[in-house]
Amino acid sequence: MAGQEVGAFLRDSPMFARLPANEVRAVEAVAREAAYRARGYVFMEGEPALWFCIVKSGRVKILKHSRTGKDVVLELLGPGEPFGGVAVIERRTYPASAQAIEPSVIVKIPQDPLVTLAERYPAIIKEMALMVGRRLRDAHDSVKSLAVDPVEARLAATLLRLAREGRKVKQGVELPFHLTRQSLADMAGTTVETTIRVVSRWLRERLVEDDGAHFVLRDPEGLKTLAEGDEA
Q1: What span, in angstroms and rounded, lies between the C-alpha atoms of 65 and 70?
Q2: Between β-strands 71-77 and 215-217, what pairing exists: parallel, antiparallel or unpaired?
Q3: Cβ(173)–Cβ(217) under 8 Å?
Q4: How far is CA 196 from CA 155, 165, 184, in A?
Q5: Which residues 6+ apart lie within 8 Å of 51 measured at CB?
Q6: Among 139, 60, 71, residue whose Cα is nearest residue 104
Q7: Which of 62, 82, 156, 192 could be disulfide-bonded to 185 (CB atoms 3.0-4.6 Å)?
Q8: How far apart are CA 180 and CA 144, in angstroms?
Q9: What confidence score (pLDDT) does residue 52 get?
Q10: Whole-model pTM?
Q11: Which helix (H) or strand (E) holds 73?
Q12: Domains detected in the chain
């Protein structure tokens, strides 16, 4: 991938969009691209946070490893979305793992240049704070849902949250990536068997559509009713 393409990618990122051109070029000079196969780890929970990462292509999931060995998926990230930044700035370890869902390319920026840049341009910290705030709200909603909501409501709420980044199509709202039953189960805190059963019923009821490549919410309002715990 040509360096110019990396520079253009960085300039499109909210993290760096307001920086002077020479500063973006300086970041570009130290950035590297890394390709990961599906299920490959970008970093592991507990490792020193040495790289700030942005998804260039593909999909990445952020997950925590429980003592029982079950992974809890915190979020799914697509092209243009950054991760690992707060731990890098604070020179801590990564609080969670990042794993490619599909073949992915990640732009990685080393710790020291990023920290130096953030000290000169507080707007970078502001963008990180906005990102963390949004993700904390989503995490709070997820934890609350796990504690009090039935499985069907959690699955519906998870799909609606992912649909925020989707696009409108003739059939409804298409998710920005194809969602496996396992990923949906992990995000909703349930088993893949239960997820398969519920989604199969939703397919019959035409609440959702899945052709193997695209996952579409055909009836977002119906899913919203389910997410709120009311009878469909």
Answers
A1: 6
A2: unpaired
A3: yes
A4: 11, 23, 10
A5: 43, 84, 88, 108, 109, 110, 111
A6: 60
A7: 192
A8: 23
A9: 95
A10: 0.75
A11: strand 71-77
A12: 3-124 (2.60.120.10), 149-227 (1.10.10.10)
Element (H, E) at 185: helix 181-188
Cβ proximity of 96 and 29 under 8 Å: no
| Strand pairing class (32-36; 104-110) | antiparallel
Distance CA 75, CA 163 (A): 13
- Start-to-end CA distance of the chain, whole Å, equals 49
Q: In the Cβ-directed half-sphere of 128, how many Cα atoms lie within 13 Å?
A: 19
Q: CA–CA distance from 136 to each of 16, 26, 129, 152, 218 (Å)? A: 22, 31, 10, 23, 28
- Tokens (6 digits) for 142: 């997820």
Measuring CA to CA, which residue among 77, 85, 68 is closest to residue 105?
77
| Mean per-residue pLDDT over the chain, rounded | 86
